[in-house]
Amino acid sequence: MGVLDRFSLQGRIALVTAGAGPQFGSSISYGLAEAGATVITASRSLESNLEFAETLRAAGHDAHGLELDISDRDSITELHGRILERFGRLDVLVNSALTRGGHVGGFEEQSPETWELSAAGDMVGLFSICRAFVPDMVRQGRGSIINISSIYGVVSNDPTLYEGTTMRQPPSYTFVKSGMVNFTRYLAAYYGKQGVRANCISPGGYFNHQPDPFLENYCRRVPVGRMLNHEDVQGAAVFLASDASAYITGVNLMVDGGWTCI
Ligand SMILES: NC(=O)c1ccc[n+]([C@@H]2O[C@H](COP(=O)([O-])OP(=O)(O)OC[C@H]3O[C@@H](n4cnc5c(N)ncnc54)[C@H](O)[C@@H]3O)[C@@H](O)[C@H]2O)c1
């Protein structure tokens, strides 16, 4: 098998939580599907996941949409059951869902209630979905977990970036994303000998028509001089999902244009 063959995801079943989302979710789903995986996306709106799966299928890929509320344990159990019933196993789990509703406002605007909201999805939910699928991966002796963290899981927000805008920097986001990075290392260490790998991808900011002052500040500070686009994270996702990264576990792959190198 040649080196490029090892990047193939042909025959692999991959779940991308919030994988139909317009930014990183769909980007990762497209990347995995183009590499040959059967891609399942799941979030609260079954309809949008079914629609997205239809779009992927129209492009010649194998894709399916299911429902998931990452903050609801029963919903995770149900998704797990459905996937095992329909596909028999899961090879790749990409945790991309984020309970955005819990990450609003800056330090002064946040409250214990907003923290509880984010904790339910981004802490308990992250644990619960791994808890559901990892035993199956252990049984099959193979699995790749990819957690989508952020530059803000590694460094803090730079408050000067947001000057001249109404954008806020929720501390809960930094909290859950940094926890995710070390939780990934825990999984990697704990399950490495059973064939289950766990890695993080920590992207920088996705270009989403942010206010001009923010864009100027961001692009001036980041070494590559621009924000991320749809393709930027796909290579990392395919790499970590595939056998090309068979000896890589517990890493936090920065896809940040050099944000954290200075
Ligand atoms: N956008 C960025 O600049 C950026 C930068 C670094 C990391 N990230 C990370 O990338 C991931 C995707 O974020 P994004 O910004 O591309 O899209 P986003 O903000 O749209 O991500 C949130 C997604 O999570 C889903 N979601 C929300 N609550 C949910 C719930 N209770 N159950 C299931 N799904 C739920 C939403 O449907 C949505 O698709 C997130 O983990 C985010 O932290 C984003």
Tell me what the structure shows:
With 262 residues, the protein is of the alpha/beta class. It has one domain (4-256): NAD(P)-binding Rossmann-like Domain (Rossmann fold, 3-Layer(aba) Sandwich), CATH 3.40.50. It is 41% helix and 15% strand. The chain contains 7 helices and 7 strands. It has helices spanning 24-34, 46-58, 73-87, 112-140, 171-191, 212-221, 234-241; strands spanning 13-17, 38-43, 62-67, 92-95, 143-148, 196-203, 252-255. The chain has a 7-stranded parallel β-sheet, sandwiched between helices. Strand 1, helix 1 and strand 2 (38-43) form a beta-alpha-beta unit. The longest helix has 29 residues, at 112-140. The radius of gyration is 18 Å and the shape is globular. Bound molecules: nicotinamide-adenine-dinucleotide.
